[in-house]
Write a structure and sequence with these properties.
CATH class of the largest domain: Alpha Beta
Order of helices and strands: EEHHEHEHEHEHEEEHEHEHHHEEHHH
Strand content: 15-25%
Distance between the termini: 62 Å
Shape: globular
Largest sheet: 5 strands, mixed
Helix content: 25-40%
Number of helices: 14
Number of domains: 2
Length: 375
């Protein structure tokens, strides 16, 4: 029998700085009423100067690992969903791996826009049910404040920064991630895009002057797409799981726009309390929005063991995805002696040290003269 992929731990991180709608009124031609009525957003979090997608991902990951009582060295894979990586290469997941000290884990990024976390979740589930992985860390993390044009009121009011993480582990107990569906329509790729910075449009004085390194979006077209695909994805994943819509206890949608969420809820004919919304506090955090929302739902006790939760997202690509999860923290950990608990805490705190030492040794080795140089 194939193992089930259960959620064993979760954690989130949001930057301390809050940027309110009133703050934006002093930065761009907009008003609090205009933003609220069209999006439902009241404030968003903005990363500090020393924060990045990787640093926020590490903080969320540490909290998820601590809740799962799992050592970073027990991870088989780390998947980071992001469209705002620290670098084009290497993958942000590799930076996270080094910081955690998860030296046995494969590490790679997924770029699927705001659907990225569902893509990462699906990959983790497939790896676990196939028997290839036992423990997987998936993270949605974004620093979109670095990729918006703060003179464009149509986009700068929407996005915020943050990170959310889940630890998935294999279990023989039925439950966990029951089904996933993924989709894409590349014909809509130009509707939500950062034009420059890749191989098609390398950085130049002209691209900088044109703000081509920032988010460009056809808001109306994306709105039409989202209101159609969000309920369709929910229906599709529930059919795949073999369950009726009435079995849903909680829907956690991508937090993009309150009007999109409300339109989807009405089409699905689900009660208001069935949809969780924290959009007004964080804005659109892209791939981080679903895991941040799931963390708040779990931490506030809004779901219990056995609750049926649907995660659904849509985003640039155009992409979409949905997952059905039977909530329940699997595999209770046996009690550990104090010295093992202390060692575990130390490993989380000083996870970066092994990678630092290896990097130092590598650089020292590179600095040594070769035999050919000596001759």
């Amino acid at each position: 029998m194939s193992p089930y992929a259960h959620i064993a731990g979760w954690g989130m991180y949001a930057p301390a700085r809050v940027l309110s709608n009133q703050d934006l009124e002093h930065m761009v031609d907009t008003t609090d009423e205009w933003i609220r009525s069209r999006t439902g957003i009241v404030e968003r979090r903005i990363a500090g100067e020393k924060e990045s997608t990787a640093t926020m991902a590490v903080e969320a990951a540490r909290r998820a690992l601590a809740r799962a009582h799992l050592s970073p060295r027990q991870l088989d894979a780390i998947i980071v969903a992001t469209i705002s990586p620290d670098h084009l290469t290497p993958a942000t997941a590799c930076l996270v791996q080094a910081a955690l000290g998860a030296d046995k884990a494969a590490a790679f990024d997924v770029s699927a826009g705001c659907s990225g976390f569902i893509y990462a979740l699906s990959l983790a589930q497939m790896g676990i049910t196939a028997g290839e992985w036992h423990s997987v860390l998936i993270i949605g993390a974004e620093t979109l404040s670095r990729f918006v044009n703060w003179e464009d009121r149509n986009t700068c009011v929407l996005f915020g920064d943050g990170a959310g993480a889940l630890v998935l582990t294999a279990s023989d107990q039925p439950g966990g991630v029951l089904a996933c569906v993924l989709g894409a329509d590349g014909s809509g790729a130009d509707l939500l895009v950062i034009p420059a910075g890749g191989s098609r449009m390398p950085a130049s004085p002209a691209t900088l002057e044109q703000h081509a390194h920032t988010i460009h979006m056809d808001g109306r077209a994306v709105f039409r797409f989202a209101t159609h695909i969000l309920p369709e994805a929910v229906e599709q994943v529930m059919r795949k799981a073999g369950l009726p819509l009435t079995a849903i206890d909680m829907v956690i949608p991508h937090q993009a726009n309150m009007r999109i969420i409300e339109a989807a809820r009405k089409k699905l004919r689900l009660p208001e309390e069935a949809f969780f919304v924290n959009l007004y506090r964080y804005g659109n955090t892209s791939a981080a929005s679903i895991p941040i929302a799931l963390c708040e739902v779990a931490d506030h006790g809004l779901i219990n063991d056995g609750s049926l939760v649907v995660l659904v997202g849509f985003g640039a690509g155009l992409t979409w995805g949905a997952a059905v999860v039977r909530w329940g923290v699997a595999l209770p950990q046996p009690a550990r002696p104090w010295w093992q608990r202390a060692l575990y805490i130390a490993r989380l705190a000083f996870g970066r040290l092994p990678a630092f030492l290896r990097r130092l040794l590598y650089r020292l080795w590179q600095a040594l003269p070769s035999r050919r140089d000596e001759e």
